[in-house]
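User: My advisor, Dr. K., asked me to get a structural model of this assembly before our group meeting. I'm new to this, so sorry if the format is off. These are the inputs:
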Amino acid sequence: MTDVDITSKTMDGMGPHGVKVGLLRVLGPAHVWALGVGIVLVGEYMGWNFAVGKGGAYAALIACWFAGILYTCVAMIDSEVTSTVASAGGQYTQAKHIVGPLMAFNVGLYLVFAYTMLEAANAITAGYLFSVVATMTGHEGELNQQPFIILVIMFLAWLNYRGVLATLTFNLVITAVAFAAILILFLSTSGIVGEGIMDHAALFEGHELPYGWIGILASMHFGLWYYLGIEGTTQAAEEVRSPARALPFGTLAGIMTLLIAATLTWYVCSGVLPWEFLGDGVNGSVAPLFDTARLSGSTGLVWLLGFGTLFATLASANGCINDASRAWFAMGRDKYLPGWFGAVHPKYRTPYRAIVFLVPIALIFALGAPLDQVITFSILSGLLGYTFMPLNIIMFRRKWPLNSIKRGYEHPFHPLPAILLLSLCGVTFFAVFLGYGTQLVAMIGFYIVVSLWFHFWRYRFVNRGAQFTMPWPKPQGY
Amino acid sequence: MDLWNWLEYAAWALSAAFGLHMALDWLRTDSTYSEDVLTSSREGELEAMAEEHRVQS
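Assistant: The format is fine. Below is the predicted structure of the whole assembly, which you can bring to the meeting.
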């Protein structure tokens, strides 16, 4: 530390001056909000409605709120820990400092797989949207979606490569448009502005809970879709100007936005579309908000929700590239993966090798794997990450109680949110097992195999002395 | 050939351009800077510096 001076023009430790090259601290709370909400909002535009198919409209609402509780716990726990462990890698870095190397390696892989798979799913969806627009505008025959899928991934990777500020400012604008589109659709179709077109009572009559209580349980699987990815805000930790303020502020504002957006989405769509059509996301309503806009009879709403769907898809893919590359970069920097991945671009100050390395992986999944399998792999990796969080916060509070480290945010009612989160994760694992038991078992098998590889081979290369960087006191009991 | 056929070609061309730009810049960066500089980022460095920082008069 002696060769750097933060006030110096040439040796500030943050620039391409031949001394040190690090990620750039340029982001504010709005960028953190855009990162979290941007990744998730596509789930409001499509995907959540499979929960209706599993258990009916009421089951989807109950799943929406229970998943909302799960993710509120995630957001509160993440806000506390990451305002203290403010480094790229997010939950990977938290696990490294609080639990141990094997947990950190697994959590890092959960993050990279969850975000890369979600990026691939978003690119597939964007390709599909282009083909729908082509058909609507009179294109004859089948549009080749491949060039549009590849363009989405290449353009967003290029944007991420060129700098984090432009990347997340772009996300802020398109996410705000997509969220505003949901609000405008609600105001226009509910009767608050103009004439309402909703008829919940008639649509629900006789179909309140078509599959009973087990339907509610089954719908929890897709209930996650309303909020999946909000925990990605932590990946911006090393690039925000004020981690202790911006991360909790952006994350908690993000979950509040999503709770509103999810409930409004359910209310608008279930009041206009019959549940059998709404619940079939393949042959029925692929994009329920867009379908609701089409039924409103307003051309303006159709265009707005059309752009909203495309923007939400792009924002999600963009945020996923940002997050997956930070997790991969952080693991490289600690030598959990080859140290070569821990490089930062001297001009753009981005983890450029991690960004470029993940491009072909996303392309392979986007062009070669079916959408539902890609989404399921993403959900399962995310769910394993959520199961780690309650254990993480309980260990964090035990080892470093409130009076030992200053936190940017202290979440209330500990350990209640941790216990609630763990219980809801258990319920969701069972729900996923009902529909995708084989994939769940296969994926856990995969993580066991890579854990063995890490334990018996890779761990010898890890930078053991240099990986614990936080200026914390010794943990209690050690 | 309608507009969408042209857009398909444009999408291929733009994808290639973005990919090529990243690849060339990557090669140029790796050949300009030493590996020590490129991988010199350290976790938590800024916080540590802020703690040690003294305002100079």
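One thing worth pointing out at the meeting: DSSP finds 17 helices and no strands in chain A.

User: Perfect, thanks a lot.
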